[in-house]
Amino acid sequence: MFEALDVIRAMITENERIILEKLREAGDKLSIEEIQKLTGLSQSTIMAVIELLKSKGAVREEAHLLKKYILTEIGIDNLEKGMPEEILLDLLKKSGGKTTIKSIIDVMGPKGNVAIGELKKRGAIVIEKNEVKLLKDVSEEILKEKEVLKEIKEKGFPSDTNVISSLLKRGLIEEKLERRVKIAYVPQIADKLLAEAKTYATKLSSDEIVSGRWKEVVLKEYNVEAHPPSLYPGLEHFFELFLEKVRLVLRDMGFKEFNYNFILQEFWNFDILFQAQDHPSREIHDTFWLDYNSDTILDASPDLVEKVKRIHEKGGSRNIRGWGGEWRESVARRYILRTQMTSATIRALSTGLSIPFRVFSIGKVYRPDQIDYKRLPEFTQLDGIISESGFTFKDLLSVLKDFFNRLGFEKVKFKPAYFPFTEPSVEGYVYMEGRGWVEVFGAGLFRPEILEVLGYAENVGAWGMGLERLAMKLIGVEDIRLFYSREIDVLRKHYSKALRALGE
Amino acid sequence: MPVVRLHLDRLKELLSGEIKEQELEDIVFTLKGEIESFNKTDGTLDIEFTMDRPDLLISEGVARAIKGLKEIETGFPKLTVKNSDYQLLIHDVPSRPYLAIGIIKNYPLDEKTLEELIQFQEKIHLTVGRKRKKVAIGIHDLDKIPSKKLEYKPVHLDYQMIPLGHSDRWTVRDVLKETVQGKLYGSYSIMNNHHPAILSDGEIISLPPVINSDVTRLDVGTKNLLIDVTGTDEFTVLKTLDLITSVLSERKNAFIELCMIVRNNNSFLTPGLTPTFVETTISDINRTLGVELSGDDIVRLGEKMRWEVLWDEDNIRAGAPEYRTDVLHPVDFIEDLAVSYGYSNFTLEPKPITTKPKEDEYTVFKKHVKRILIGLGYTQFLSFTMISDDLAKIAPESGISPIRIINPISNEMSSIRPSIIPSLIQAIRESQKSGLPLRIFEIGYYGYIDTKSKGLSTGEKLALALVDYRVGYEDIQSALEGLLSILGITPVYQRYYSDIFIKGRSSIVKYNDTVIGYVGEIYPQILVDNQIKHPVGVAEVYLDILYQLWKIH
User: What part of B 180-239 touches A (C-beta under 8 Å)?
Assistant: First the structure.
């Protein structure tokens, strides 16, 4: 209980004021439902406010037990299917006012006995020998009783309390005690509160502003030093931040994007690139084969297929030899998941590009590989091709150096390498603070056999790189699996990291 | 890429002197290789080399290359070649027609040499030999071969031999069935109850590509070798013999002896030790590399890589030594010139950009879509295209079958996802603990087969998911509509039933009769199966279709 001094200094909320005022108006105790009807507040709000008011001593909760009645199963049955005495009465009327006990039982079963008993009580029938004779039509009485049952079903209480004992006796209804709570107004405290306490709000509302009541409302002081509940914005994937940066550099260098299928036939992933059909990388350990067939090679004219066959077997016009053996179309027709993005750039090349051109493609490639902190069977690669009049190997190195400089790497190192479809080939390293030289890309001039099939006179440079690996080094991600994390916390954390690492 | 373990002692002996670690590292770098480790305890190095240089898979080959780059010895290696009186009669062996043999004399085997020799053979099998299918090598102690007249022919499976590592006689049949090598390679050349064999005086000395006989086994103390190479491709068989005999003869005092092959009344000597000649021009070389080399420069650079080069005016004729298996075209010479020149010696200048920068429209469109969804509070996920067979059943379309992977790495990745929805389900499972509501989306590849037409459908889809304590159809529908309205597309929703959605709570989304996608509340059993505790609403659209519709506007 608050002391007088405390009451003056006490504050109440808007809802407390509303409920107290309604209680005072009513002049009597009110139930929660009644308060709800009067205030329009939700039950849970009302109950919370009542607790507050109780703690201040402004209201008192009074519980009393209310006696109610409910229908028993028999009662419900009677109401729905008809009372036994009703049914018997009906039966009697239909059989000319009399019938045998036996017939009654036949039709009604054990209920027949109940019916006989009831009608006898009411003096409606007389039993002679095994016959039952109708004396009085008590339908109206019975109907009245049904009404009472209905009433009890709906309201829990009949208007005519006299019938209660007989209905109880007959097992048609039963007693139920319900705890009813009523809230009582405690004038000594409540009056003072209403008169003197200031109303405060936790949040300003539109109502208060518009009505001008904001002048009277006191806003509860917030603990502004505390941290708020978490609110997370929608975010782009952190890897895409990196990919955007790469695309931007490529755009500035005059590159155009091209896309092609990730599900292809070996023709477009290997054969068009002059990779021998018995090359180890085309085996079950290095390429994913798909359970799908076709009789033709998609996007390849018979002419092109013929050219590729010839070049594989015999080599091009300036070859000493080709791969020998027999080039089989059945092998080239096999469906796989692409293993390299050169499959897309070579497709672009096959559409007939006019020099000068700079084309790139970014997409997923697939290789059967263990999953560990630096390897995935499915990862993202960038492949680019470039050509112009008089394009040289030196030009390719220059473009590569330029690309990596723009990505933020000052020092680039080139190393002789081997790729089946480029010659000369080169592997590239960039220098990263704290990590030293890191291998990031492979490149080279397309082998002449490839250019001969596709009809290119100028040299075409090509280069490819795994993007997750580069992003890992740039952003500081230790495990490649994190790029495909299923945990949103991980994505949020790395997004923040990437924002810093990727700079402008 | 093959990795070999070489003995530093052998290398030093072959080089007749010391070589510093750093210098070795730099040379290996130039030879496209990478030293993986220096093993101080046993004086070995683990080096990874590339597939085009099988000659480097033994110390002799590496030493030869080093001598060239350091200009100690340049041009073709000087081989000592003599005739032997060994003869091989080749009969018809349809399953493995080609065989060539050669002899190396004065090649004493100590432990380290034997180790490297076996490794050399094994690595060539893996690379050039395509795991013994294309080419297989047998190395024998020459002095243990019963007779100088050898035969190559198919023998019946009941024929007997003493397989390597055993002292008793087995039938060929048992050798194929019971030995490790028999189980691995026995199926390659068997034909009509016969298997190819090399015999000497009726004794099987080799059963290619499976196993050698114990009769001619190599031991510490062996001094002279007979090399046999069998295979299905004549050129590769002859080239492989050239490779092995040439490289091994790099050893001091070792020399090659030729053998006579008789086949179909033709006779010829092996190894042929033939260089590969290419013709090009100085202009071509300079035009390809972007340098200005003179004829003399080209000769010097080529010789460092052990080529022999002649020039006259603009013409260049270059020969690759017999042990080079990778020369198909003049460009293979040009690369060696670049390597010899030194990749770091190219003076690089930034190239003027003569192509117009242009962003890809579809990529830009995707950027807009992402931006709008982020604005609706959705976070982007990226996941795998490959999923389990079970999850591949979750898709809103009807009449489709998943594309299965024949050789998956695991059951978790054995099919291609037909929809992004199962991927989002996986993400929700792990992310639901981080707080609700959870709003996520993904743009990614999908693929499926139309069950009736058997046609393949692939492309990109966008899927979004909303997870909360309570989620209703319109909650997710309003997100999709939010996106579509900004894109200027007013869709039509039609009642649609799919067993992945709650009945009566899903629709197919269309625009002018084109199907854009689907929206619905996920059927709870799917949630339960995936340990998801909260209701989920998803929407999925075909991004390519959306893009086309957006362009039309």
Answer: 233, 235-236
ipTM of model: 0.93
Query: Across the interface, do B434 and A364 touch by the CB < 8 Å criterion?
Result: no
Report the amino acid identity of residue B99: L
Amino acid at B289: L
Distance CA B77, CA B536 (A): 73
Q: Would strands A412-416 and A357-366 be described as parallel, antiparallel, or unpaired?
A: unpaired
- Mean pLDDT across A486-496: 95
What pLDDT, in 10s, does the model give residues B321-348? 999 999 999 999 999 999 999 999 999 9
Categorize the per-residue pLDDT at A492 as very low, low, confident or very high, splitting at 50, 70 and 90.
very high
Inter-chain contacts counted by CB atoms under 8 A, chains A and B: 240
Name A497's Cβ contacts closer than 8 Å, sequence gap at least 6.
A238, A475, A476, A477
CA distances, A404 to each of A245, A250, A412, A431 (Å)? 12, 10, 7, 10
Helix, strand and coil in chain B, % to nearest 5: 35, 30, 35
Enter the pTM of the model. Answer: 0.80
Q: Decide: B447 and A263 in contact? Cβ < 8 Å.
A: yes
Structure confidence at residue A200 (pLDDT): 67
Of B360, B384, B430, Cβ closest to residue A257:
B360
Q: What is the pLDDT of residues B37-71, one digit of tens each?
A: 999 999 999 999 999 999 999 999 999 999 999 99
Q: Are B214 and B170 in contact (CB under 8 A)?
A: no
The chain A residue lying nearest B29, using CA atoms, is: A415
Question: Would you call A316 and B358 a contact, using CB atoms and an 8 Å cutoff?
Answer: no
**Contacts with B, A 368-427, CB within 8 Å:** 368-371, 377-378, 388, 390, 392-395, 397-399, 401-402, 413-418, 423-426
The mean per-residue pLDDT over the stretch A321-338 comes to 94
Residue pair B307/B320 in contact by the 8 Å Cβ criterion: yes
Its sign, for the CA torsion B142, B143, B149, B155, is negative
The C-alpha atoms of residue B126 and residue B113 are separated, in whole angstroms, by: 20
Distances (CA, A) of B72 to B10, B11, B303: 18, 15, 11
Which of B446, B501, B456 shows the shortest CA–CA distance to B477?
B501
* A468 chain-B contacts, CB cut-off 8 A: none
Q: DSSP secondary structure string, B86-126?
A: EEEEE---TTS-EEEEEEEES----HHHHHHHHHHHHHHHH
B328: burial class by Cβ within 10 Å (0-12, 13-18, 19+)?
Answer: buried
User: What long-range pairs does B333-336 form, CB within 8 A, spacing at least 24?
Assistant: B333/B278, B333/B280, B333/B302, B333/B307, B334/A423, B334/A424, B334/B280, B334/B284, B334/B285, B334/B288, B334/B289, B335/A416, B335/A423, B335/A424, B335/A425, B336/B301, B336/B302, B336/B305, B336/B307
Q: Measuring CA to CA, how many Å separate A354 from each of A119, A343, A388, B287?
A: 108, 19, 9, 20
CB B55 within 8 A of CB B249: no
**Partners of B538 in the beta sheet?**
B465, B520
pLDDT for B182 beyond 50: yes
Whole-number Å distance between alpha carbons of B343 and A397: 9
Between the ranges A180-194, A200-214, A339-353, where is the mean pLDDT highest? Answer: A339-353
The pLDDT of residue A3: 47
How far is Cα A472 from Cα A498, in angstroms, rounded to an integer?
Answer: 10
Peptide bond connecting A280 to the previous residue in cis, omega within 30 degrees of 0: no
3-state secondary structure B63-86: HHHHHHHCCCCCCCCCCCEEEEEE
Q: Under an 8 A CB cutoff, do B288 and A232 touch?
A: no
Q: How far is B450 from chain A (nearest CA, A)?
A: 12
Q: Looking at the complex, does the CB of residue B22 fall below 8 Å from at least one CB of chain A? A: no
- Are the beta carbons of A237 and B52 separated by less than 8 Å? no
